[in-house]
Amino acid sequence: MQAIKQYTEVINGSIHVNLPESFTAKRVELIILAADDNNTETGNFQRFLLDSPEMTDEEYQAIAEKREHLNQWK
User: Fold this and answer.
1) How far apart are CA 43 and CA 36, in angstroms?
2) Span 26-37, mean pLDDT?
3) Residues 50, 42: Cα–Cα separation, whole Å
4) CA 7 to chain centre
5) Buried b (16+ CB within 10 A) or exposed e, 33-72
6) Domain count across the chain
7) What are phi and psi of 12, to 5 degrees?
8) What is the mean pLDDT of residues 28-32?
């Protein structure tokens, strides 16, 4: 599968994409996503992490103790 990823400006509601000569597909699928900082996958993942509940020190210690116990199993 050939794939091209590029960023381009939207001008008057239109975009223009130049394909390289080596791109030989006769039919393509376009997926258009906003590239603003607030809409990128990275931004969404960071927002997910910031909105996630935090673990207390006690919860972390309990998990660490259980992990240590399980690591002793052969």
Assistant:
1) 9
2) 85
3) 12
4) 16
5) eeeeeeeeeeeeeeeeeeeeeeeeeeeeeeeeeeeeeeee
6) 1
7) 55, 40
8) 91
What lies within 8 Å, CB to CB, of 15 at 6+ separation is 8, 9, 32
The overall average pLDDT reported for the chain is 86
Give the span between the Cα atoms of 23 and 12, in whole angstroms.
Answer: 27
**Beta-bridge partner residues of 11:** 14
Q: CA-to-CA distance for 41 and 35, rounded, in angstroms?
A: 9
Q: Which domain holds residue 70?
A: 1-74
pTM of the model: 0.41
Q: What is the pLDDT of residue 14?
A: 94
